[in-house]
Design goal:
P-loop_NTPase; 23% strand; 10 strands; ATP-binding; binds adenosine-5'-diphosphate; Rossmann fold; ABC transporter ATP-binding protein; 9 helices; binds magnesium ion; ABC_transporter-like_ATP-bd; 273 residues; 2 domains; six-stranded mixed sheet
Protein backbone atom coordinates (compact mmCIF):
# COMPACT_ATOMS: atom_id res chain seq x y z
CA UNK A 1 0.00 0.00 0.00
CA UNK A 2 1.20 3.54 -0.77
CA UNK A 3 1.96 5.90 2.11
CA UNK A 4 0.33 8.82 0.30
CA UNK A 5 -1.79 9.12 -2.83
CA UNK A 6 -2.69 12.62 -4.02
CA UNK A 7 -5.13 12.24 -6.91
CA UNK A 8 -5.88 15.18 -9.26
CA UNK A 9 -5.87 17.68 -6.44
CA UNK A 10 -6.64 21.32 -7.11
CA UNK A 11 -6.65 23.88 -4.33
CA UNK A 12 -8.15 27.32 -4.83
CA UNK A 13 -8.08 29.83 -1.97
CA UNK A 14 -10.68 32.60 -1.69
CA UNK A 15 -12.72 31.17 -4.51
CA UNK A 16 -14.98 33.72 -6.24
CA UNK A 17 -13.23 36.67 -4.61
CA UNK A 18 -10.96 39.18 -6.29
CA UNK A 19 -8.02 37.67 -4.39
CA UNK A 20 -8.78 34.15 -5.63
CA UNK A 21 -5.59 32.11 -6.04
CA UNK A 22 -5.17 28.62 -7.43
CA UNK A 23 -2.31 27.33 -5.31
CA UNK A 24 -2.30 23.84 -6.84
CA UNK A 25 -3.68 22.57 -10.11
CA UNK A 26 -4.34 18.90 -10.92
CA UNK A 27 -1.56 17.54 -8.74
CA UNK A 28 -0.90 13.79 -8.70
CA UNK A 29 1.63 12.41 -6.24
CA UNK A 30 2.21 8.91 -4.92
CA UNK A 31 4.65 8.21 -2.11
CA UNK A 32 5.58 4.56 -1.68
CA UNK A 33 5.99 2.92 1.70
CA UNK A 34 9.35 3.83 3.19
CA UNK A 35 10.09 6.34 0.45
CA UNK A 36 11.52 9.80 1.15
CA UNK A 37 10.17 12.31 -1.35
CA UNK A 38 11.27 15.94 -1.43
CA UNK A 39 9.12 18.73 -2.83
CA UNK A 40 11.13 21.57 -4.32
CA UNK A 41 10.15 24.68 -6.25
CA UNK A 42 10.13 28.46 -6.16
CA UNK A 43 8.56 30.31 -3.28
CA UNK A 44 4.78 30.33 -3.56
CA UNK A 45 4.49 27.26 -5.82
CA UNK A 46 2.30 25.43 -3.32
CA UNK A 47 4.71 23.16 -1.43
CA UNK A 48 3.30 24.02 1.99
CA UNK A 49 -0.22 23.86 0.63
CA UNK A 50 0.40 20.33 -0.66
CA UNK A 51 1.86 19.25 2.67
CA UNK A 52 -1.05 20.79 4.59
CA UNK A 53 -3.50 18.97 2.33
CA UNK A 54 -1.80 15.65 3.08
CA UNK A 55 -1.91 16.52 6.80
CA UNK A 56 -5.65 17.31 6.50
CA UNK A 57 -5.05 20.81 7.87
CA UNK A 58 -6.85 22.11 4.76
CA UNK A 59 -9.15 20.38 2.26
CA UNK A 60 -8.73 20.10 -1.51
CA UNK A 61 -11.11 22.04 -3.77
CA UNK A 62 -11.26 19.00 -6.04
CA UNK A 63 -9.50 15.64 -6.02
CA UNK A 64 -8.67 13.30 -3.16
CA UNK A 65 -5.88 12.64 -0.69
CA UNK A 66 -5.33 9.15 0.72
CA UNK A 67 -2.90 8.36 3.53
CA UNK A 68 -2.06 4.70 4.14
CA UNK A 69 -5.21 3.61 2.36
CA UNK A 70 -7.59 5.84 4.29
CA UNK A 71 -8.84 9.40 3.92
CA UNK A 72 -6.51 12.18 5.12
CA UNK A 73 -9.08 13.06 7.79
CA UNK A 74 -9.18 9.54 9.16
CA UNK A 75 -5.38 9.36 9.12
CA UNK A 76 -5.19 12.58 11.14
CA UNK A 77 -7.61 11.20 13.75
CA UNK A 78 -5.46 8.12 14.08
CA UNK A 79 -2.24 10.17 14.24
CA UNK A 80 -0.93 8.26 11.25
CA UNK A 81 1.66 10.95 10.62
CA UNK A 82 3.96 13.30 12.50
CA UNK A 83 4.59 16.88 11.44
CA UNK A 84 7.65 19.10 11.82
CA UNK A 85 7.74 22.63 10.48
CA UNK A 86 10.40 25.27 9.98
CA UNK A 87 9.85 26.69 13.44
CA UNK A 88 10.22 24.01 16.10
CA UNK A 89 6.92 25.11 17.66
CA UNK A 90 7.70 23.83 21.14
CA UNK A 91 5.75 24.80 24.23
CA UNK A 92 8.02 27.07 26.23
CA UNK A 93 6.48 26.14 29.59
CA UNK A 94 6.98 22.42 29.09
CA UNK A 95 10.29 20.68 29.54
CA UNK A 96 11.87 18.94 26.57
CA UNK A 97 10.59 15.59 27.84
CA UNK A 98 7.06 16.87 28.31
CA UNK A 99 7.05 18.43 24.85
CA UNK A 100 7.86 15.04 23.36
CA UNK A 101 5.25 13.41 25.59
CA UNK A 102 2.47 15.65 24.29
CA UNK A 103 1.27 13.56 21.32
CA UNK A 104 1.45 10.50 23.58
CA UNK A 105 -0.81 12.22 26.11
CA UNK A 106 -3.27 12.91 23.31
CA UNK A 107 -3.15 9.21 22.53
CA UNK A 108 -3.98 8.39 26.13
CA UNK A 109 -0.80 6.49 27.01
CA UNK A 110 -0.08 6.00 30.72
CA UNK A 111 2.43 8.27 32.41
CA UNK A 112 5.01 5.50 32.57
CA UNK A 113 4.62 4.51 28.93
CA UNK A 114 4.82 8.16 27.86
CA UNK A 115 8.00 8.80 29.76
CA UNK A 116 9.67 5.64 28.49
CA UNK A 117 8.79 6.38 24.86
CA UNK A 118 9.75 10.05 25.07
CA UNK A 119 13.11 9.16 26.58
CA UNK A 120 13.69 6.64 23.81
CA UNK A 121 12.95 9.31 21.16
CA UNK A 122 15.26 11.82 22.85
CA UNK A 123 18.03 9.24 22.81
CA UNK A 124 17.41 8.73 19.10
CA UNK A 125 18.04 12.44 18.42
CA UNK A 126 20.93 12.58 20.90
CA UNK A 127 19.22 14.74 23.52
CA UNK A 128 18.78 12.30 26.40
CA UNK A 129 20.74 14.60 28.70
CA UNK A 130 18.42 17.53 28.07
CA UNK A 131 15.07 15.98 29.04
CA UNK A 132 14.60 18.34 31.98
CA UNK A 133 15.60 21.50 30.12
CA UNK A 134 13.17 24.08 28.79
CA UNK A 135 13.17 24.97 25.06
CA UNK A 136 14.63 28.44 25.69
CA UNK A 137 17.72 26.78 27.19
CA UNK A 138 18.49 24.95 23.92
CA UNK A 139 20.07 26.06 20.65
CA UNK A 140 17.95 26.28 17.50
CA UNK A 141 19.31 22.98 16.21
CA UNK A 142 18.53 21.23 19.48
CA UNK A 143 14.99 22.65 19.49
CA UNK A 144 14.51 21.34 15.98
CA UNK A 145 15.68 17.90 17.13
CA UNK A 146 13.13 18.02 19.94
CA UNK A 147 10.44 18.81 17.36
CA UNK A 148 11.57 15.83 15.29
CA UNK A 149 11.57 13.59 18.38
CA UNK A 150 8.02 14.77 19.10
CA UNK A 151 6.94 14.13 15.50
CA UNK A 152 8.37 10.60 15.76
CA UNK A 153 7.05 9.83 19.24
CA UNK A 154 3.89 8.05 18.14
CA UNK A 155 6.04 6.17 15.63
CA UNK A 156 3.99 7.44 12.72
CA UNK A 157 4.32 5.54 9.46
CA UNK A 158 4.51 8.95 7.74
CA UNK A 159 6.51 12.06 8.50
CA UNK A 160 5.58 15.43 6.97
CA UNK A 161 8.31 18.06 7.16
CA UNK A 162 8.10 21.64 5.90
CA UNK A 163 11.57 23.18 5.61
CA UNK A 164 12.41 21.79 9.05
CA UNK A 165 16.09 22.71 8.81
CA UNK A 166 15.59 26.01 6.99
CA UNK A 167 16.53 28.17 9.96
CA UNK A 168 19.69 26.26 10.84
CA UNK A 169 23.33 26.82 10.00
CA UNK A 170 24.88 24.59 7.35
CA UNK A 171 26.81 22.33 9.74
CA UNK A 172 23.83 21.65 12.00
CA UNK A 173 21.69 21.15 8.95
CA UNK A 174 23.96 18.47 7.51
CA UNK A 175 24.11 16.68 10.85
CA UNK A 176 20.33 16.68 11.21
CA UNK A 177 19.93 15.45 7.64
CA UNK A 178 22.07 12.44 8.51
CA UNK A 179 20.15 11.89 11.74
CA UNK A 180 16.85 12.05 9.89
CA UNK A 181 18.05 9.51 7.33
CA UNK A 182 19.24 7.22 10.12
CA UNK A 183 15.89 7.44 11.91
CA UNK A 184 13.88 6.86 8.73
CA UNK A 185 15.96 3.84 7.79
CA UNK A 186 15.73 2.46 11.31
CA UNK A 187 11.95 2.92 11.59
CA UNK A 188 10.88 2.44 7.95
CA UNK A 189 9.09 5.80 8.04
CA UNK A 190 7.82 7.31 4.78
CA UNK A 191 8.59 11.02 4.49
CA UNK A 192 7.42 14.02 2.49
CA UNK A 193 10.05 16.71 2.88
CA UNK A 194 9.64 20.29 1.67
CA UNK A 195 12.82 22.22 1.00
CA UNK A 196 14.11 24.99 -1.23
CA UNK A 197 17.64 23.62 -1.13
CA UNK A 198 18.55 21.51 -4.15
CA UNK A 199 21.49 19.84 -2.39
CA UNK A 200 19.36 18.98 0.64
CA UNK A 201 16.65 17.48 -1.58
CA UNK A 202 19.15 15.37 -3.53
CA UNK A 203 21.02 14.19 -0.44
CA UNK A 204 17.91 13.07 1.45
CA UNK A 205 15.57 11.78 -1.19
CA UNK A 206 14.70 8.67 -3.04
CA UNK A 207 12.85 11.04 -5.36
CA UNK A 208 12.81 14.80 -5.89
CA UNK A 209 9.51 16.22 -7.08
CA UNK A 210 9.92 19.57 -8.84
CA UNK A 211 7.07 22.09 -8.83
CA UNK A 212 6.33 25.27 -10.75
CA UNK A 213 4.27 28.24 -9.61
CA UNK A 214 0.98 29.85 -10.60
CA UNK A 215 -0.74 27.55 -10.65
CA UNK A 216 1.36 25.10 -8.67
CA UNK A 217 2.01 21.96 -10.66
CA UNK A 218 4.41 19.06 -10.58
CA UNK A 219 6.75 19.44 -13.54
CA UNK A 220 9.31 16.70 -12.93
CA UNK A 221 9.95 13.69 -10.74
CA UNK A 222 13.62 12.77 -10.47
CA UNK A 223 14.73 9.47 -8.95
CA UNK A 224 17.90 9.67 -6.87
CA UNK A 225 20.12 6.70 -6.14
CA UNK A 226 23.33 7.80 -4.45
CA UNK A 227 26.08 5.25 -3.75
CA UNK A 228 25.85 6.20 -0.07
CA UNK A 229 24.21 8.88 2.02
CA UNK A 230 27.22 10.15 3.91
CA UNK A 231 30.17 12.45 3.24
CA UNK A 232 31.35 10.17 0.43
CA UNK A 233 27.85 10.34 -1.08
CA UNK A 234 27.95 14.13 -0.93
CA UNK A 235 31.17 14.11 -2.93
CA UNK A 236 30.14 11.46 -5.45
CA UNK A 237 29.69 12.30 -9.14
CA UNK A 238 26.11 10.96 -8.87
CA UNK A 239 25.33 13.64 -6.27
CA UNK A 240 26.51 16.48 -8.54
CA UNK A 241 24.80 14.99 -11.59
CA UNK A 242 21.48 14.91 -9.74
CA UNK A 243 21.93 18.47 -8.50
CA UNK A 244 22.39 19.58 -12.10
CA UNK A 245 19.36 17.58 -13.21
CA UNK A 246 17.13 19.09 -10.50
CA UNK A 247 18.44 22.61 -11.22
CA UNK A 248 17.68 22.21 -14.92
CA UNK A 249 14.20 20.93 -14.12
CA UNK A 250 13.64 23.99 -11.94
CA UNK A 251 14.85 26.32 -14.67
CA UNK A 252 12.73 24.57 -17.25
CA UNK A 253 9.59 25.59 -15.41
CA UNK A 254 8.01 28.85 -16.61
CA UNK A 255 7.94 30.42 -13.13
CA UNK A 256 11.34 29.21 -11.96
CA UNK A 257 13.56 31.63 -10.09
CA UNK A 258 15.99 33.72 -12.14
CA UNK A 259 19.59 32.47 -12.19
CA UNK A 260 21.53 33.48 -9.07
CA UNK A 261 23.42 36.76 -9.25
CA UNK A 262 27.19 36.46 -9.16
CA UNK A 263 27.27 38.53 -5.96
CA UNK A 264 25.27 35.92 -4.06
CA UNK A 265 28.20 33.53 -3.74
CA UNK A 266 28.51 29.79 -4.15
CA UNK A 267 25.63 28.79 -1.87
CA UNK A 268 23.09 30.49 -4.11
CA UNK A 269 23.77 27.88 -6.78
CA UNK A 270 21.92 25.17 -4.88
CA UNK A 271 19.00 27.28 -3.72
CA UNK A 272 15.66 27.11 -5.50
CA UNK A 273 14.42 30.48 -4.28
N1 LIG B 1 -4.56 30.33 3.55
C1 LIG B 1 -4.32 30.92 2.37
N2 LIG B 1 -5.14 31.84 1.86
C2 LIG B 1 -4.91 32.42 0.67
N3 LIG B 1 -3.86 32.13 -0.12
C3 LIG B 1 -2.98 31.20 0.34
C4 LIG B 1 -3.16 30.56 1.60
N4 LIG B 1 -2.14 29.69 1.77
C5 LIG B 1 -1.36 29.79 0.68
N5 LIG B 1 -1.87 30.70 -0.21
C6 LIG B 1 -1.31 31.05 -1.51
O1 LIG B 1 -1.06 29.85 -2.22
C7 LIG B 1 0.15 29.92 -2.95
C8 LIG B 1 1.06 28.79 -2.50
O2 LIG B 1 1.50 29.03 -1.17
P1 LIG B 1 2.43 28.02 -0.36
O3 LIG B 1 1.85 26.67 -0.43
O4 LIG B 1 2.64 28.60 0.99
O5 LIG B 1 3.77 28.09 -1.22
P2 LIG B 1 5.25 27.55 -0.88
O6 LIG B 1 5.18 26.76 0.40
O7 LIG B 1 5.64 26.72 -2.05
O8 LIG B 1 6.12 28.75 -0.76
C9 LIG B 1 0.72 31.30 -2.70
O9 LIG B 1 0.32 32.14 -3.79
C10 LIG B 1 0.04 31.73 -1.42
O10 LIG B 1 -0.07 33.11 -1.35
MG1 LIG C 1 6.11 27.01 2.29
Amino acid sequence: MSAVVVDKVTKTFNRGRTDEVTALSEVDLTVADGELVSLIGPSGCGKSTLLRLIADLIQPSTGTVTVAGQSAGQARKEQAYGIAFQQAGLFEWRTVLRNVELPLELRGLSKRERKARAEEMLTLVGLEDFAGHYPAQLSGGMQQRVAIARALAVQPPLLLMDEPFGALDEMTRERLQSELLGICTQTGTSTVFVTHSISEAVFLSNRVVVMSARPGRITASITVDLPSRDDAGRQSPAFFEKITEVRQALRGTPAAAPPPRASEGAAAGTDAR
